[in-house]
Amino acid sequence: xxxxxxxxxxxxxxxxxxxxxxxxxxxxxxxxxxxxxxxxxxxxxxxxxxxxxxxxxxxxxxxxxxxxxxxxxxxxxxxxxxxxxxxxxxxxxxxxxxxxxxxxxxxxxxxxxxxxxxxxxxxxxxxxxxxxxxxxxxxxxxxxxxxxxxxxxxxxxxxxxxxxxxxxxxxxxxxxxxxxxxxxxxxxxxxxxxxxxxxxxxxxxxxxxxxxxxxxxxxxxxxxxxxxxxxxxxxxxxxxxxxxxxxxxxxxxxxxxxxxxxxxxxxxxxxxxxxxxxxxxxxxxxxxxxxxxxxxxxxxxxxxxxxxxxxxxxxxxxxxx
Length: 321
Known about the structure:
Blueprint: H1 11-40, H2 46-57, H3 60-71, H4 87-115, E1 124-127, E2 130-133, H5 135-163, H6 166-176, H7 178-193, H8 197-226, H9 242-252, E3 256-266, E4 269-278, H10 284-296, E5 302-309, H11 315-318
Parallel strand pairs: 4-5
Antiparallel strand pairs: 1-2, 3-4
């Protein structure tokens, strides 16, 4: 009997994982360049500082993905008999917590500066013998920090869905929205140039609010996954129909009078228990082995399922809430 899959990903998904890794390394290289470029022209703008922090924080999800992708498919050990699949969820939690904490700090700092009516200034800089307003360097730096990220996010989104990897999906979703951060910071810089002192702090508060929102949303989803909630789609917008497919497959078997399934996410794969009421108890062991083979063939995400014959379905399994 095949109790669980030997490998976490089938061959075609392993190629998808290689592509996702390459994109994440490219993302890290790009973000390092954006962080370095923004640091060179940071000035005293609160919006620029917040945009710089956001790019710095954006390094956490790709690093978390690469680390979890390296270790989550390791074979189970005596100390960790269920394997290391939840490294994906732990990486998701760490990234979300960092985003939420830093976003909240930057939001408070921006609001305090707005209330205090601080008037930031952007000075001049001399480059190649020419002196000009530093804001003219800030604007292209912000453009570089926003636009390429959008294309990286769009490229990673379908890979995240194919891999059912929520860390990669969260990273892609954040990348796609990076242009909003860049645009808000550019408004703040231009506002300072026109003497609108509050534009900078307001833009910084808007960026901080977006960081905090992303952090809180991902933190909620990561905690729910670690609490073994019913599996959801990679976008967290609906319950994954796979559990119902597994239950329907078991209910179709001629020797099964009724079946209910409980599943939980372990990273990007599913573990679970199936309760079946056998109508014919003869050769039960062989029938369960055959049923398990059929269920594991339904979808690569069904990694390990325990099929237990019972006299009646447990009430907990019957209640979908």
